């Protein structure tokens, strides 16, 4: 075989930048921000993995405030404990969202505003500005 006479292209370098964090964004909404005492309200809490990596061990906290009687929940991913308020979402791919829906009956005294907060993920969330959200409620 002939010798390689163009030796300037015989090496290559691939630069790899490891992903060191994720951005999990949280939103909160309520179906009726001005309910009457005795009415049911539905809170819709959503977490979205904005990337750039898969997030595992995703945990959030949302305990229905004392101004409500807990009437039920549903979640599209993971498990929720109504007694502790812990939502164990688990693993989320990039772009994936998960929703927690909490239903409560409005009591005569509050507090009424419902806050959800990201408590942990792996890798850790490095964009913390969107890690909690509050649905504000003022009963009439």
Oligomer state of the chains in this structure: single chain
Helix content, binned percent: under 10%
Count of distinct strands: 9
Stretches where pLDDT is under 50 for at least 5 consecutive residues are: none
Q: Can you give the mean pLDDT? A: 94
> Count of DSSP helices?
0
Which sheet architecture does the biggest sheet show? 5 strands, antiparallel
- Give the helices and strands as they follow along the chain: EEEEEEEEE
Shape: rod-shaped
Strand content: over 45%
Whole-Å distance between the termini?
89 Å
Structural class: mainly beta
Strand order of the largest sheet: 5-6-3-8-9
Rg calc: 23 Å
Features:
single chain; 140 residues; mainly beta; 5-stranded antiparallel beta sheet; 46% strand
Describe the structure in brief:
With 140 residues, the protein is mostly beta strands. It has no helices and nine strands. It is 0% helix and 46% strand.
How would you sum up this structure, described in words?
- With 140 residues, the protein is mainly β.
- It contains no helices and nine strands.
- The chain has strands spanning 24-30, 40-49, 55-61, 68-75, 79-81, 86-92, 97-106, 114-122, 132-135.
- The protein has a five-stranded antiparallel β-sheet with strand order 5-6-3-8-9, with no helix packed on it. A four-stranded antiparallel β-sheet has the order 1-2-7-4, with no helix packed on it.
- β5 and β6 form a beta hairpin.
- The N and C termini lie far apart (89 Å).
- The relative contact order is 0.30.
